[in-house]
Amino acid sequence: MDTLNSIVTSDLSLWGLFISSFLAATLLPGGSEAVLFGVLKLHPDLFWPALLLGTVGNTLGGMVTFGMGWMLPQTQQLKHVDKVRQHGAPALVLAWVPLVGDALCLAAGWLRLNWWQAALFMAIGKFARYWVIALASQY
């Protein structure tokens, strides 16, 4: 019974992490760092699955914000978009930064940047942030 309980608990923890990571990367308020830290404190054996699911969920949430920006009409200039235009998709490495990251994703979509490059650079930045948090949970 302990094995079944452990499996169910770890599966629910991973699903909760994925959902938390996804929602935290949209325009909704929330943070997933504490969820990742908690999952890894309870289940240190889930280091890589938690790190990867958190990254995927957070990247997909960022791409939702990117898509929202894509749907905005381009009739007016949005504030601070020139910085994103100047740096292009690599600027999305900073998509993990609270508050700024959401604006970057929205601006990148509004600028119609290449979606797969946007996803790649978002994932790199988000993975790096989660990796640092995951490493910290090991101590």
Give an account of the 3D structure.
There is one protein chain. With 139 residues, the protein is mainly alpha-helical. The chain has one domain (2-137). Helix content is 71%, strand content 0%. It is built from six helices and no strands. It has helices spanning 2-24, 33-42, 47-71, 81-87, 100-110, 115-137. Helix 2 packs across helix 6 (115-137), helix 3 (47-71) packs across helix 5 and helix 3 packs antiparallel against helix 6. The protein is elongated and about 50 Å long. It starts with a helix and ends with a helix. Keywords: Membrane, Transmembrane, Transmembrane helix. InterPro entries: DedA_domain. The chain crosses the membrane at residues 12-40, 46-70, 91-110, 116-136. This is Putative inner membrane protein.
Kindly summarize this structure in a few lines:
This protein has 139 residues and is mainly α. The protein has 6 helices and no strands. The relative contact order is 0.16.
Number of strands: 0
Terminal-residue CA separation: 29 Å
Number of domains: 1
Evaluate the radius of gyration: 16 Å
Mean pLDDT: 90
Outline the biggest β-sheet: none
How helix-rich are the residues, as a percent range?
over 70%
Net shape: elongated
Helix-strand string: HHHHHH
Per DSSP, the total helix count is 6
> Which consecutive residue ranges, at least 5 long each, have pLDDT under 50?
none
Tell me what portion of residues adopts beta-strand conformation.
Answer: under 5%
Provide the structure class.
Answer: mainly alpha
